[in-house]
Amino acid sequence: MNNRCKVCGGVLKQFIDFGKMPLANRFLKSNEFDKEYYFNLAVGLCPICHMVQLINQPNPNLMFNNEYPFFSSSSTIMKTHFSEMVDNVLGFIKPGDFVIEIGSNDGTMLSSFREKGCNVLGIEPSSNVAKVASLKDIPTIVDFFNEYTASYICSEYGKANAIIATNVMCHIPDLNSVLQGVYNLLEDNGVFVFEDPYIVDIIDNVSYDQIYDEHVFLFSISSIHKIISRNGMRLFMVSHQNVHGGSMRYYICKDNRPIHSSINKFINLENILGYNYIDIYNRFAIKVKESSFRFKSILEELKNCGENIVGYAATSKSTTILNYANIDNNLISCIYDTTPEKWYKYTPGTHIQIIPYSKFKKDNPRHSVLFAWNHKKEILEKEKWYSGKFIIPHENI
Ligand code: SAH
Ligand code: TYD
Ligand code: ZN
User: Fold this and answer.
1) Which of 63, 72, 170, 338 is the pocket-test mutation for ligand 2 (most atoms within 8 Å of CB)?
2) What average pLDDT does range 90-118 have in this prediction?
3) Strand pairing of 186-197 and 160-166?
4) Predicted confidence band at 396 (pLDDT cuts at 50, 70, 90)?
5) Going by CA atoms, what residue is nearest to atom 16 of ligand 2?
6) Hey, what's the torsion of the CAs at 242, 248, 249, 254, to 10 degrees?
7) Which residue, 14, 120, 127, 279, could crosslink 110 as a Cys pair with Cβ 3.0–4.6 Å?
8) For residue 190, how many other CB atoms are within 10 A of its CB?
9) pLDDT at 1 over 60
10) Does residue 164 surpass a pLDDT of 70?
């Protein structure tokens, strides 16, 4: 166990321990059940730089390789969101400028940048998703972004006018190395824009399923402000986003542009609400236990009445919910999902089978747990016909 802060070396104050957990995106074939990888999922707050983080994290090569099953294009609302983000970033750069995306996945966002006339380059370690981007002619380097790969990119391709990263900065344990890489790769008047789930939304909504192996950090603006300054850059604006259950977009520069009022507004709010102190996280830990217990009780009551319960969307987030409450295929008979790479495989640790989404309409199950609750709007719109009931895992608290 390494209880030192990955950012500043401070001694972490642990506030929650989920126990033994498998890798959230490691969907298995039935002959792989006995060689599943487990690690201890626990979270702590750094009292010095206020970064909330996993105490232990599995080796990134175990998670991001040639079998990564998440594709950015799996949500229509996210595709729209990325295309709006492109327009927003274009307000800071010129047509024809060079844009680099860290964690470019299947090239969804870079395709939009290219359509707007930008030169683009992705850096993405999971080779199977990077291949989808390459098939769309999005130039992609298959590697982990850090200060070393950044220096290679700089010498081969030159500096970027914009560097973008969505839902990936919180995945990278050596954040200082990434930020040094960004600093060296960014033009002096360029912008670095990134976006990740926001800690205030996670704590407020008790959405503890945002905590799993890949999400090594839960960012607050206060903690990001400190680490950005530490790496010689300036956080000049933030903007809250209604995706993935509540995210924050951070705008960073190297030059002296004015600092937007949003920074002080949110930093003061986090201070007043107590996000830099352990008490709020200790209260969260109690609510997580209650939420998990209630969720399982709801499922057990339905099951005792002879009802069949299924899952909707085999999200990585569902791994924490299912394993923490020990919910297996006795309570949830199967999970419908749109990703062919997941079909007929089983959920990590709990071994519930994943079924092609196309069967959902035919089966019309009476009770479906909406594991992709973060895409609720899109899904409820799509499933207007559905006469059964959606259960949202942590809406019961
Ligand atoms: N940006 C996309 C994908 C998010 S999933 C979106 O918002 O939908 C996280 C992605 O980051 C995965 O594709 C994963 O392979 C990639 N990733 C993980 N560690 C990385 C690193 N060090 N550098 C670049 N990409 C990384
Ligand atoms: P998401 O919440 O985006 O991510 P994560 O897996 O990181 O928690 O969920 C993505 C999964 O949800 C992916 O397997 C596809 C599935 N999904 C559906 O099956 N139907 C849908 O309508 C949507 C939006 C997603
Ligand atoms: Zn720290």
Assistant:
1) 338
2) 97
3) parallel
4) low
5) 313
6) 170
7) 120
8) 23
9) no
10) yes
**How much is the pLDDT for 395?**
81
Ligand 2, atom 24: closest residue by C-alpha: 75
How close is the Cα of 141 to the center of ligand 3, in Å?
31
Rounded to an integer, the average pLDDT of 95-110 is 97
The reported pLDDT for the residue numbered 338 is 97
Residue 358 per-residue DSSP state = H
Cα-based angle 50, 52, 56 (whole degrees, multiple of 5)? 130
Nearest ligand 1 atom to alpha carbon 78: 8
125 near 229, Cβ under 8 Å?
no
CB-based burial label for 173 (10 Å; 0-12, 13-18, 19+)? middle
Atom of ligand 2 lying closest to residue 338 CA: 19
CB of 237 shorter than 6 A to ligand 1? no
- Ligand 1 contacts CB of residue 166 (under 6 A): yes
Determine the angle formed by the axes of helices 261-273 and 221-230, rounding to 10 degrees: 120
Tell me the C-alpha distance between 11 and 6, whole Å. 10
For 23, the token pair is 């890798």
What per-residue confidence (pLDDT) applies to 397? 43
User: Whose CA is closest to 37, among 56, 54, 20?
Assistant: 20
Q: What is the pLDDT of residues 244-281, one digit of tens each?
A: 999 999 999 999 999 999 999 999 999 999 999 999 99
